[in-house]
Amino acid sequence: MCLIKLSIINPGGIVMFKKDSKKIIGVKQSIKALKNLESLSYVQVYVARDAAEKVIKPLLELAQNNTLDVIYIPTMQELGEICNIDVGAAAALILENNIIDL
């Protein structure tokens, strides 16, 4: 099993997820997915701290309304790397059943 380690400070400890985890990348795609998913108990929301507030605000409000924790990644570039893409990402969702808390 190939794991990716998130180098962030998280109240629950270090977070790792499978490299082939189901990811939804981008603010618009994340909002659409959150509105359409049957169960939100398997979702973690990741947001880049350097993303423009007006861009991520709708996603943050939706996460708050659904009592989802938001995990902040320092930069869009780092979030893009975590998501295994060549460009930065303002936000992403990762299905929680692919995440391992250490």
Automatic annotation (TrEMBL):
<dbReference type="InterPro" id="IPR004038">
    <property type="entry name" value="Ribosomal_eL8/eL30/eS12/Gad45"/>
</dbReference>
<keyword id="KW-0689">Ribosomal protein</keyword>
<dbReference type="GO" id="GO:0005840">
    <property type="term" value="C:ribosome"/>
</dbReference>
<dbReference type="Pfam" id="PF01248">
    <property type="entry name" value="Ribosomal_L7Ae"/>
</dbReference>
<dbReference type="InterPro" id="IPR029064">
    <property type="entry name" value="Ribosomal_eL30-like_sf"/>
</dbReference>
<feature type="domain" description="Ribosomal protein eL8/eL30/eS12/Gadd45">
    <location>
        <begin position="19"/>
        <end position="98"/>
    </location>
</feature>
<keyword id="KW-0687">Ribonucleoprotein</keyword>
<protein>
    <submittedName>
        <fullName>Ribosomal protein HS6-type (S12/L30/L7a)</fullName>
    </submittedName>
</protein>
